[in-house]
Design brief:
The complex is a heterodimer of chains A (112) and B (115). With 112 residues, chain A is mainly beta. Chain A contains no helices and 11 strands. By secondary structure, chain B is mainly beta. Classes of the chains: A mainly beta (112), B mainly beta (115).
Chain lengths: 112, 115
């Protein structure tokens, strides 16, 4: 298995632009998680899905953030419009029940 | 509600010395416990996990951890530190009965290994 695949690895965008981050979970995993990591805040859970259904989006910072999981093999996290304070590393992780997460390599987002 | 506390945001050891990273958890149900490692500019990688059974669990790279229910602890140890162990380490807990697999992470401990 190729693991959790995230794209792009790096994204540099101008303030106000739309940003879309993509994630392909491990085949057969039933939960998918989006995290944001910064030096100041550490690792923050943004939203997670179970069987493609959003379960908890209380970590999504603002309405500018949205996430979808149209099928079991794909998820997106969208920021529109982006702001400099959104600069962070965004991780996607997937799991099968309680056996622990497998993380992707992350997307490093820089908003200038 | 579940929570995880990692004692010490930074730990420094000499190469060859014992590594001890502390983790205490709070959970009202039998927990599943995990340690993850993050090397610079990489994602988090599972080191080891405790679900049920033997309370001493062994992981990759010579690390091990012991689940102590009476102390609500899951400390991570390694007998002899290598320079390559320098990284950030995260302890995490999930509800054993949950089928969503959501983990609660500690704030992380940065391990520095001095030559």
């Amino acid at each position: 298995d190729a693991g959790v695949i995230q794209s792009p690895r790096h994204e540099v965008t101008e303030m106000g632009q739309e940003v879309t981050l993509r994630c392909k979970p491990i085949s057969g995993h039933n939960s998918l998680f989006w995290y944001r990591q910064t030096m100041m805040r550490g690792l923050e859970l943004l939203i997670y899905f179970n069987n493609n259904v959003p379960i908890d989006d209380s970590g999504m910072p603002e309405d500018r953030f949205s996430a979808k999981m149209p099928n079991a093999s794909f998820s997106t996290l969208k920021i529109q419009p982006s702001e400099p304070r959104d600069s962070a590393v965004y991780f996607c992780a997937s799991s099968l029940n309680n056996y622990g997460y497998t993380f992707g390599s992350g997307t490093r987002l820089t908003v200038v | 509600a579940q929570s995880v506390t990692q004692l010490g945001s930074h730990v420094s050891v000499s190469e060859g010395a014992l590594v001890l990273l502390r983790c205490n958890y709070s959970s009202s149900v039998p927990p599943y416990l995990f340690w993850y490692v993050q090397y610079p500019n990489q994602g988090l990688q599972l080191l080891l996990k405790y679900t049920t059974g033997a309370t001493l669990v062994k992981g990759i790279n010579g690390f091990e951890a012991e689940f102590k229910k009476s102390e609500t602890s899951f400390h991570l140890t390694k007998p002899s530190a290598h320079m390559s162990d320098a990284a950030e380490y995260f302890c995490a807990v999930s509800e054993g009965s949950s089928n969503t697999g959501k983990l609660i992470f500690g704030q992380g401990t940065t391990l520095q290994v001095k030559p």
